[in-house]
Each structure stands twice: as structure tokens, then as C-alpha cells.
Amino acid sequence: MLNHTSEKDERKSLFIFERMFGKKAVLFCIGFLVFSCAQAQPTKAIADKIIGVVGDNIILYSDIQNSISDIIRQGGTVPENGACLIMEQALISKILMLQAQKDSLPVSDEEVEAELDQKIRFYINQFGGRKELEEIAGKTIYQIKDDARPTIKEQKLAAAMQRKIVDNIRITPTEVRAFYDRIPPDSLPFFETELEIGQIIVYPKASREIEEYVLGEMNNYKKQLESKKTDFCQLARLVSEDPGSKDRCGQYEINRNEKSWDPVFLSTAFRLKEGEISYPVKSKFGYHIIQMVSRNGDDAVVRHILRIPPVTADDINQAKKKLDSVRSKILLGEMSFNAAASKYSDEESHKFAGPFILGRDGSTRVTIDQLDKDIVAILDKLKPGDISQPMLFESEQGKKGVRIIYLKSRTEPHRMNLKDDYSKVAQMALEEKKAKALDKWLREKLSAYYIMVDKNTLEECPLLQKFVYSPKGF
Predict the structure, then answer these.
(1) What is the pLDDT of residues 186-203, one digit of tens each?
(2) What per-residue string of b and e applies to 156-167 under the rule 16 or more CB within 10 Å gives b?
(3) Predicted model pTM
(4) Domains located in the chain, CATH noted
């Protein structure tokens, strides 16, 4: 966004950046980033040094560089003065943390450990396993946790303090209009076509005969494994239908309290002793054989083999007939699309999150690039308010399903305006108002803290001088 070609373009880009994210988008990149150690580079090391101090808390040069590396690794774009912005956020974060401690804001050790465990599990799954993460990081899981714990604590304290400062701030329609009117016309962002798309999904059920056949095969696999005719890794790679794990011998690292796992799978796994192999069990994905590899409290390493009973053309046609009947009820006004999704959809998320596809920002408006190719292919045939005929598709897990697609709305490409984008403008105005409240709070608090910034860093980042020299000019 800030890769500009002229001074005018630079001002415009900065204006949009500030309006979209707030001048003080605190915690927008303050991770430091707990797991940058997981991307250890064999390049020539640069001597580390302290470049900032707030109270008795230090900021290292490596903290800033690791944050930049993490933003790039996660696909983000770092502005030209990205290091200065991250340093500014680091200083603010530490001020917020110290004030949270003064105000005795509640952040328990249990919350910190839960956050640590969640991040560790994410990176374990991302890198393929505990051993792989430790090899890449050059540290054990316990060392990674020990290194990350103070940062997680700081993040949670700073976030709690920030919430205390800005959570009660509200925006009025008059303020939204005033905010919009201040934006230069040539700085209004351009929005691509956005759509609101709902879907109702039915997964055809295999016949009893096919289910019994697959169950018999799974029992046979268990016998082969227990008689040592084959090993679990080889068999998982050969027959498992879980694309996310078959190349890793069917292995996952799981936690008893993680809600994303199927409850049948989770409860079966944690009843096993190390090395033990379960009888076949049925989850919402299909039939599993599970082996407990190792366990440490609520954490475990397991392997599994998944077989999905195949559905026939007749099974698919039955699902299509069911959805065709549901579609007719909606079109006749006998029930709303949302009510039909809640009652008939087999997709569990539709029960509590609603049937509409969510965008990256959590809203129900999505762009074309966020949709799968099968939905994109039928969009030209649908007008807002239309519902597609039942159509076959395949889920990310490789499961065959049938769905109907509802196109609720479609916007044309346009410059931001109040009529079409009121909620977005209101959110920007609210973020600006919160940023101003945070600025005001910081101006009042700066003099209460000892703050030091390295001389070279100050020369490179003039925006940081307000922290050291002139609280009034913040």
C-alpha cells in the first residue's frame, strides 16, 4: 500500500492506511513475534543491542527485525518505515502493559498458558509435528514456551489496558458523516464487487451395506496391525483418506480441550494407552482407527487411518431431491433461507454461525477471490435473490456433498460512499475515534514513565522523538 511513486501518492496512501487501521493500531504487529525463533536463519548474525527501554523493560533490535520477518512470512506488506512503526507500537505496548500492572488488570497465568498452548499447537500443525518444530526452532517446546511466555503476558496485559481505554467509545451517525466528509475525494478507496452468498449443504449418507463393508475393512486393518503384518505408518500412507495427515503417517498432535476436534475422535484417542490401537469408531468424517503414540497430560500425539464410506449415484440423487424440496419451501415463502439452513444443513457451522460465507474481516461480504471455483462458475446465472439448483461439490476434506447457493446481494465496483459502505465508514470513524482517545491517554501518561530510545534509532525514526523529548507534542 505504501509503495508510492510521488509525494502526493504517498500522502494519499498514508491517509488511507491511517483511516483503515488507525494511527495507533496498537497490537497490529506487536507479536515480536513469539515464534520468530521457529524460522532460524543460517545467515550471518548481526550483533543484537538494546534500542529502547520503558521502565525496566527493554526492546531489542532483534525484536523489531523478527517482527518484520514474521509479517513478510505471513504474506503481509511492510511499509518503507515499517521498522519505525513497529518500534512505536513496541513502546506503546510496554506503556500499556506497565499501566495494566499498576491498575491490577486481571490476566491470569492460566490465560497465558492457554494462549501459549494454542500457539504451539498451531505451529506444530503448520510444520508437521513437534519434532519438526523443534528442529526448525533449534529449541525444545519447553524452551520455546519459556522464551515466549513474557511476550504473551505483555500482549495480554497491553490488550486489557487498551480495552479499558477504548471499549466504551461509540460513534454517532453525525460523526460518521463528518469523518467521511473529511476524506479527500481522490483518497476514497476503490472496492471490487462484493457478494453475500449463503449455502445449505447436505452430505449424502452411504448405504448400510457399504458402511458395513468399510467397517469390515477397518477391522481387518486392526488385525493386520496387531499381528505386525504391516506397520501403522505404511498402512496410513496407503489407505487413509485424510489428505491432511496421510503423508505424515496419519499423525496429529491433539489437545483434550481443543474444540475443533471431533468429540468422538477426541474421546476415543484419550481412552487409549500408549501404543494401543482403537477399534474402528465413526465420527462425522467417516471411520477411524486411532493409535496413541505418546501422551503428556492433556496433550497427545496420535496416528489415525480414515476411511470414508463412498456414496453412490442413488445416494447423491436422494440428497438432491431433499434440497430441491427445501429450495421450493424457501421460494414459496414457507420459511426463510436462514431458518432452512438451521433446520436442514449438515454443515455444523451453519447451526451457530449462520449459512453465509464469511470474508477475511468476518463480515458476510466476500470478493470473488474468496470463493471456490464451483461457486464462481454459477454466479453469472444468478441474480440477487436467486437460489441455485442443487449441485454436487467436494469439501476440503474430500467429502462429497450437495448444496444450494443463495445470492443475497451483489455490489458493483465503486468508490467508497456512505450509501453502499456505511458500515465500513462507521468502522473507520470508530477506529479513528478510538485512536484519538488512545493518543490522549498516552499524552497524559508519557511523563509518568522512564523512556529511552537509542540515538541511532531516533535519527532513523523521527516519529519516536515524542516519546523521549516532548510529551506535549505527542
Answers:
(1) 999 999 999 999 999 999
(2) bbbbbbbeebbe
(3) 0.65
(4) 7-189+418-473 (1.10.4030), 192-205+312-414 (3.10.50.40), 208-307 (3.10.50.40)
